[in-house]
Amino acid sequence: MKTRLIFFGLLALLFSCLVGAFLGAAPARANGATFTVDRTDDTASATACTAAANDCSLRGAIIAANASAGDDLILLPSGVYTLTIANPGGVPDDAALVGDLDITSTLTISGTGNPIVDGNALDRVFEILGPVTATISGLTIQNGYPGDILINSGSALILNNSLARDNAGPFGAYGIANSGALTLDSSTISGHSGSGIINNAILTLSNSTVSGNNAGQGGGIANVGAATLYTSTISANRASYGGGIYNWGTLLLINSTVSTNTSSSEGGGISNLGKLTLDSSVVISNSTSAYGGGIANSGILTVTSSTVLSNTAQDDGGGIYNYSYGIVTLGDSTIFSNTTGSSGYFPQGGGIYNGGVFTASNSTISSNWAASDGGGISNWGTMTITHSVVISNSTPNYGGGIANTSVLSLAESAVSHNVAIAGGGIYNTATQPGSYPFGGILTISHSTISYNAANSGGGIHDRFFGVLTLTDSAVISNTAMEAGGMVANGVLTTTLANATFSGNSASGNGGGLVVIYNSSPVNLNNLTIANNSAAAGGGIFKDGSVVALQNTLLAGNRDTLGASFPDCSGTLTSQGYNLVGDTNGCALAGVTTGNKLGLDPGLGPLQDNGGPTLTHALLSGSPAIDAGNPATPGSGGNACEATDQRGTVRPLGARCDMGAYEALIQIYLPLIMK
Fold first, then answer.
1. Would you say 409 and 375 are in contact if contact means Cβ atoms under 8 Å apart?
2. Nearest to 395 by CA among 438, 433, 350
3. N or C, fewer C-beta in 10 Å, the chain?
4. How far apart are CA 358 and CA 331, in angstroms?
5. Domain ranges of the chain
C-alpha cells in the first residue's frame, strides 16, 4: 500500500511539473523576494513593500531589491509612474535615490495592464549596473533623457513584451544604449530623437520592432558590437547615414524586414561598414537622397535567400550601392523593382551599383530602373555573375540590364527583356576611351542574351575600347533600330566563339551583328548566325572595320528591303572554312580555303539540343558537317574550338563541323536475321 501511494505521489508531482511547463510557469528564483508596488508617485522612502497600503513605490521597490540578496521580483500594476526626483547637483547616483532608476541586483520587473514608466526628461528611466541581469516585462518606458535605458559593461537586460518610446529630449536622445548584453523579445523601440538602439556589445532581437526613430547614424540601430535580429522589423526610421541600421560591427539578420527607412547621405535601409549578413530577409521601400536606397556597403556584405525590393536612391544604387572597398556576396536572392532618382549626377545602377568586388550567384535582378546607365546593374568594380537572371530592367540611357565600365564576368546566366537607348541587354565600354586596360572588360560564357531592345545594340553594345569575349552562348531574339543582336563600335578587342546569333532584328542595319569603326579585328570562330533580319546585312553589317571569321556558318538571314544584303553587308575577312548562304551585297576576302558559298546550311530549328543554351542543330546531310578546319580542335590558330556551344567535344566525325553545333551522325547498320 505504501509503495502504491509513493508511486501515485510521484505521478502527481510529474503531472504538476508538466502542466506548469506547458502553461508557461515562470522559473523559480533563487532566494528572491517579491515586491508589489502599490503607489504611483515617485518617492524613495516607500521601501517597506509589505501588505500594508501605500508603502511601496516603484523607486522604493527597486531600492529594496538592490539591497536584497537573490533574484527579486517587482510586480508593477497598471498606472502611470512618472519620475519627479531630479538630481539637484547633477552628481551621478547609482543607488536609485534620485534621477533614473538604478538596478544593481539581479531583478525582474513584471508589469500587468501595461504600466507606463515616464522619465519626465529628468534623466534616463532605467540604468543597469554591475554584473547583474535585469528582466523587464510588460512595461511602456518613455521620455527618458538622454535615453530611456542604459546598460553598462558587464550588465545584461532582457526586455520582454515592452515598449520604449517617445523620449522628450532634444535631438540625440536614444532609446536603449547597450554596453553589456541586451535581449529584446516581442518588444518595440520607437519614436526617439536619437537611435532606437545603440549597441556597443551584444544585442539580440527576436520578434521585435524598431521604428520611427531619428539619428545622425543609424536611426533604428547603430551597431558597433555584435548584433543578431530574428524575425524582427526595422521600419520608418531616419538618419543621415543608415536610416534603418548603421553597422560598424558584426550584424546578422534572419527572417527580418528593413522597410520604409530614409537617409539623407547613404543607406536608406542599411549603411554597412562592418560585417553584415542577411539571411531570408527583406529590405523594402527604403530611400536615400544619395547612394544605396536599400543598402550602402563599404564593408563585407553577404545576402542569402533574401529580397531587396522597391528601394530608391536619388543618386547611384537604388537597391545596393557597393563602394570601391566593399565586398558583396549575393546568393539565391532577388533584387527587384529598385530605382534611382533623376536629380543626382547621372544616377546609375537601378538594382545594383558596384564599385568594389561583387559576386552574384543563383539570383534574379529584375524590373529595376536607372535614370542613367545600368537599369539592372552598373559595374565600376570587379563583378562575377553566375547562374543568375537579369530580366526586365530598363534605363533611358545605356545598359538596360547591365552597364559595365570595369571588369565583369557573366557565366551560365540569362540577360533578357531589358530596355535601353543603347545596349538593351548589356552595354560595355572603357571608363576613359583610349585608356585601356582601364575598364570595359566583359567576359560572357554559357549564357543567353535574349529579347532585349534598344535603339543601338539590342542585345549587346560593345563600345569605346571595350574588350569583349563571348563564348558558348546564345544571342537571340533581340531588337534594335541598329544592330539587333550586337554592335562592336570602336572596341579594342572582340572575340566571339561557339555562339549562336539567331532571331535578332533591326529596322536599320545589322540584324545579327554590326561592326563599325574598330581599330582591331572582330574575331569569329565557330559561330552560327542564322534567321536574323535587317534592312541591310541581315546577318552581319560591317563598315570601316575588319571582321575575321573562320569555321563559321552565316546563312538563312533576311534583308527586309529586298534580296540585296541578306546574310552580310560589306567585305568580310575569311580565315577559311566558312559557310555563307548568300553573298549578295558582301564579299569574302582573305583565306578562302574550305569556304562553301551559296548553299543551304541544313539547320534545324532553334531549340534545346542539350547544354545550357539554345542551338541550331545541323541536320543530316548538312554541308557544314565535317567541313571545319582539319587542324586539331582547340589547337589555336584557325582551328575549330575544342568543344561546341553545348560543351560537346569536337570532332564527332572525321573533322569538326562549321558553326556552333557539332553534329553526331547516326549510322544505321542493316539488321541480319538468321
1. no
2. 350
3. C
4. 11
5. 30-194, 239-397, 402-674
- Quick one: the chain helix, strand, coil %, rounded to 5? 5, 45, 55
CA–CA dist 40, 306 (Å, integer): 47
595: amino acid identity, one letter:
N
Strand pairing of 339-340 and 312-313?
parallel
Alpha-carbon distance 215 to 246, whole Å?
A: 10
CA distances 583 to 555, 586, 657, Å, are 9, 5, 21
44 DSSP 8-state letter: S
Task: Tell me: pLDDT of 468 over 50.
Answer: yes
Which cell numbers in the block locate residue 104? 544593481
Identify the CA nearest to 174 among candidates 106, 126, 103: 126
Listed residue (313, 340, 328, 474) closest to 394, CA to CA? 340
Report the C-alpha gap between 570 and 593 in whole angstroms. Answer: 20
> How far apart, in whole angstroms, are the C-alpha atoms of residue 3 and residue 471?
84
pLDDT tens digit sequence for 640-673: 999 999 999 999 999 999 999 999 865 544 555 5
In this structure, are residues 429 and 466 in contact, taking their beta carbons and an 8 Å threshold?
Answer: yes
Cell of 165: 518610446
- Cell 561598414 belongs to 273
23: left (phi over 0), alpha (psi -120 to 50) or beta: alpha
Per-residue buried b or exposed e for 592-627, using 16+ beta carbons within 10 Å of the residue's own CB: eebbbeeeebbbeebeebebbbbbbbbeeebbbbbb
Q: How many other CB atoms are found less than 10 A from the CB of residue 44?
A: 15
Average pLDDT for the chain:
92
Rounded Cα distance between 132 and 149, Å, is: 15
502 and 664 Cβ atoms separated by less than 8 Å: no
Q: Name residues whose C-beta falls within 8 Å of residue 351's C-beta, 6 or more positions apart in sequence.
A: 308, 318, 319, 320, 335, 336, 338, 365, 366, 368, 375, 376, 377, 393
Between the alpha carbon of residue 611 and those of residues 470, 473, 474, 640, the distances in Å are: 16, 10, 11, 18
Tally of residues, the chain: 674
Q: Cite the DSSP H helix spans in 412-479.
A: none
pLDDT tens digits, residue range 430-443? 876 444 445 789 99
Q: Looking at the DSSP assignment, which residues form a beta bridge with residue 198? A: 177, 222
For the chain, first and last CA: distance in Å?
A: 92
Joined grid coordinates for residue 485: 543582336
Strand intervals (E) in 477-598: 479-482, 486-489, 493-502, 505-506, 513-516, 522-525, 528-530, 533-534, 540-543, 547-550, 553-554, 558-559, 568-575, 579-580, 586-591, 596-597
Angle CA 642–648–654, to nearest 5: 70
Dist. CA 510–CA 539, nearest whole Å: 6
Give the contacts of 259 (CB within 8 A, at least 6 positions apart).
233, 234, 235, 236, 244, 269, 282, 283, 284, 285, 286
Per-residue pLDDT reduced to its tens digit, 271-301:
999 999 999 999 999 999 999 999 999 999 9
